[in-house]
Fold these 4 entries.
Entry 1:
Amino acid sequence: MIITTTPTVEGHQIVEYHGVVFGEVITGINFVKDFFAGIRNVVGGRSGSYEKELTNARTAALSEMEQRAQRMGANAVVGVDVDYEVMGSDNGMMMVSATGTAVTIR
């Protein structure tokens, strides 16, 4: 399946629109990761544990979106947008959502 942020797929014609598809993942960051990320904030540097969690959540959201598009009969998703949202201020939860338009291309 082709997944793209562009509204079309170069070299292909969209022959059918199936509708908007989405994938959402809500993930929590645990105390140990928060503690070590706090240390990184003081001494500088990147937080590998947060980056890994973000990558995993983004991959899962895109995968869920792709599976939903396949169930609709699509073979591509165009106009994909990925959003990140912190849920609440103190609960350590984050939502990653991916949305796009499921289409059939040839």
Entry 2:
Amino acid sequence: MSIPNQFSEFISLIKKKLRVDESFDLINRTIQISGRQACLFFIDGMVKDEVMEKLMEFFYSASDQSLQDARTFSKQCIPYVEVDLLDDLDTITTSVLSGILVLVVEGFEQAISIDVRTYPQRSVEEPDQDKVLRGSRDGFVETLVMNTALIRRRIRTPDLTVKIFSVGSLSQTDVAVCYLDTVVDHKLLDRIVQKIKTVQVEALTMNQQSLVEAIYPRRWYNPFPKFKYSERPDSTASSILEGNIVLLVDNSPSAVIIPTSIFDIVEEADDYYFPPITGTYLRLSRYAVTIATLFLTPLWLLALQNPDFVPPFLSFILIEDPVNIPVFWQLLILELAIDGLRLASMNTPSVLSTSLSVIAGIVLSDFAVKSGWFSTEAMLYMAFVAIANYSQPSYELGYALKFMRILLLILTVLLNLWGFLIGCIIVILMIACNRTISGKSYLYPLIPFRGKEFLRRFFRVRIQKS
């Protein structure tokens, strides 16, 4: 919609479009600039007050010569970096709602946008989820501009490209696509950009999760994640340098990295912040613990159902004391109880979290065993599974392994050894038949096999000189 010629008519249209009279935080300020009427539109709390005061001084001291047109006025009377000219009413409305200051001057055919935005944000600190033993301690925040700056700080090349799009007919959420132009897969990039442009949603209510579900609706029965989420700028920058594409969503403190295989998801920043031998040990330990979380309790249940299969040196894993509740139901109840405690700890005030966690640990261990609900062995193995699940940083992968573990338990208790074998086959097929967003194998470089690259996934090698 174009700007009308009459100043008062145009101001009335903006007020009606923004519904200024019905929202207390939408401010319009009428001023005089060298005898001409002018009006400022902005959102209270999203502009820098000290910058506004300086700009007002220049507005009031403007001369008649500077009021020839909007371009001349912006060059001579607005000593600020981010200034643009707008000639469309819808664009002006969107700019104001995005936090940008818009100035309309009588006689000008264009409005002037001045990006003096500021957002309430927390400090750039290390994320709780992706902590490292050694390395940088900064993390993404909920402000898009700050997150792109953290990446730019690490990649100082003009090949780093950051494109921005607006998604959602109501929310108009900013989405940034970051990539290195010289190494990125341009076919995949074009496909992702096209999907973002054609997303038909009203709002990204759940930030990046809403976006990935809109651009890539996956099969509901396959829980293994197709995207890697990271709150660390160093890991994100490393992924960009390797040719991956990163999506940043405003109001979200994490980056979406694509394409991603299961080996990429299990990787962690600590693998590279230590010498090769230490990094290799940490990586192999993480792989071993991750596999153990999937198979430990189903194998124990299988051993209890088939004590003849257990060699003498492992006979101590068998339960000799009578149990009141079948072991299968014990494990299933504990799987649900662990998630219940996790949710409870998230909603517990930080002042009480330590004391309540100690009390919960005592009740679920000693008292639960003495009361006859759970056996000591079941508590031990599920405690290991619960703690070991945090050895890898991906919550999505952790829950995928949890669902597969429950499936293995159900098939094992129903069909015994055949059930366990069928469950293992289902898990392998779930992973092998999964595809990344680029269409490549989820198990690359295992399928298709790339020997050198596959070994690099397990053994951390020294960084090559360029």
Entry 3:
Amino acid sequence: MKLGKRNKKSAEKRRAVVVGAGIAGLTVARALARGGYSTLVLEGRDAPGGAVRSHRVAGLLLDAGAESFATRGGYVADLLADLGLADQITGPDPAGAWVQLPDVARPMPKGGVLGIPARPWSADIRRTLGILGAARACLDLVLPPVVGSGGSLRDQVGRRMGYRVVDRLVHPVVGGVYGADPADVTLAALAPHLATEVTKSRGSLARAVRTVVASMPAGASTQGLTGGLYRMTNALADDVEAHGGQVKVFTKVTGVSRGDDDVWTVATKDDSYPADLLVLASPMLTGLDGLEGLALDEGRPSTLVTLVLDDARLDAAPRGTGMLVAPGSPVDAKALTHSTVKWSWLAEQAGAGRHVLRVSYEGDRMGQWNEENRQRLRDTALVDAGLMLGLALTSARLVGYDVVVWTQAMPRPSAAHREAVAKVKALADATEGLVVTGSWVAGTGLAAVVDDAMTTARSLVPDAAD
């Protein structure tokens, strides 16, 4: 992004328009508002936050999307500290999650990255893969570096460790956590830090995972926020407005254009807004020169069904903090989170015998939004949750539920998408007053999104981190 004329309006406040009020957009907007920009954030949905927002179910205010973040790099924790929320950061219950396999449920082996095991002959890996599967995985330690290189994540892991590792470990994690298929992404796109270590480890995935795990801070690899991760969204939006900025919801941007005076015009259905600085924190390409026909990955929609039940049988935490699901399993869900086991603050808030389960599905399972479809999904989620937890769950014990469908929350970092993003970033670098950020640029996961957003903020307002 060129800023050669950034002092052109020294006699008046520079106007910044941020398209998209997800975490990245709000993070950059906060820095701009604090840095003296007249800052306007435009969001097409009914609330800011993107996939980090709340909903109320059975009287409980809960995360409606993301509920945790990766501790890698400390990026999210640093931002939370800057927002005054450091003392609210909390770790999940150490019991850990399970994996639903086609034939049985097992505790998810610990110490891996993306499900890739650090020690393929460990007892928990042998229980999950079987003796032959674990022995095949150990070949990774002796295979030549060229084996598995240059392919998809599925093929890289499959060729080095065997496809049983992919199906029983990697696919459940990548599908359940990142909403992607290992066949559609590369290791470099999903975990660039791990890909770098693989090169240093002569191609061995296990050795690379050991190095990455050893470099992680002590404690859980993921953390959350007491009261809900959505509080980060609220704190960011409040800070933007406290410094004179404005966050407008129900305001979908339809296109952008730049005049001869280098001033941008941001168009919505009912209005237009001038901007000296345009920040695209969501994939709005209409009106950008040279990008006609460029196709960005829209991400896989996902459906989240939240169930609140009064059922003391769940006090025993039969599957730890939840379950990931391997291909060929007897349930249609891709993951289940037992939130009142995972987060002690939520268990205390819910009260004795009351439990929150989050059951997620790939794709938009609602179709037409009506009560009949909502109840159908509720009943499906109850059956799937019961199968995964080994209990018969019925609507008689249900005290509340909600259905949320997420779109564009997790674009798949495919080669085609990364190539398209590279073109967008090249245009931004060459264009006056144009910046891009957000998950569509940075990749999936709050750690990557916040890292990119803070880097972008510092490029615009050098003292943004102060």
Entry 4:
Amino acid sequence: MIAIINAVLVMRDHLIPNGAVFIKDGKIFAFGEMRQLTVPEGCQILDAKGAYVGPGLVDIHTHAGGGHWFYEDPYKAAKVHMEHGVTTVLPTLYFSMTAQEILKGLKTIQAAKGKPGCKNIAGFYMEAPYMNPNFGCDREKNPWKGPIRREEYQPIIDQAGEDVKVWVLAPERENIRQFVLDAKQANPDVRFAVGHSEASPQQIEALMPYGLSIGTHHTNATGNREKYPECRGVCVDETVNYHRDIYAELICDSRGIHVDPYMLRLVRRIKGEDRVILISDACVFDGPVPEGYEGVKDILFDYAGEIAGTKLTLDVACQNMMVHTGASIVDVFRYASYNPARAVGLYDRGELAVGKRADLVITDHKMNIKTVILEGEIQK
């Protein structure tokens, strides 16, 4: 058993000062104010020395870590995320990959999943194959522009199986409903996300009964339909904002480039504290830095000079969110742990509660990660 003492416990909507957490058999056994608890004899004592203890971070959308693609080297990528407090990660494969490349990437990550060094890998977030070919970085290499055909996508669905937690898609693509039905047959609990899309509200809403419940990197790589030149159209972003049941993913870089700080604050106000998700969307592109972006260190560009993901880790995204919006440490833990875990159906983690997985981080008030615990075992 491990006893973490002298901690400020970060709960879903409040703090518990002078707190303690007891861990037994990889799960949270007890927690609360130290004055109300008795430390069992023989415990390994971990003194937080007044630091914050919160749930491990959950990054549901990231392609890489520390300059390593997950599909090439899942061990190195997973290690970087773990060091930054991410105890649950969903490696993301992208639409610019061919069917053969996707299958190879799935197999590589599946072979590593659950092994030492990759125990934070919990499945896949598939930003492929059927996006709108007009949106997204590296789109010149998109091999999925043609008609949606079962014989082309079914091998991917079969290989991914129940490991896929989220399929991202463009609801406006012809025959996309059949893909959704086949994906759900392979995994009835899978979620769908709208991304790289110019779908109308009605096209998005038509897929919500099947589990469309996430807006992929909200306000990025989406189009607006304009019926009248002088009026703003209604499209993906507005639909995600409107529907209470849809979570909004946000990429929060240091300069507010992916999402303007004012927009971050607006989304918080519209969606509420329990429908915002922070993601890193880390990649490994090394295209030229366009004019006007000199000195920007945490985002990447493709070879056409377009924004192509980030160099972020989720702890840094939390720090940026605090700066840009005034969010508290309670808020950012919710955006980066509880909310994403719920969004993808991982109900056994993401909060400090008895019986939940002992995935924990010890951090200072600025979200600088000091210690990482995964299923009751200290990783850092």
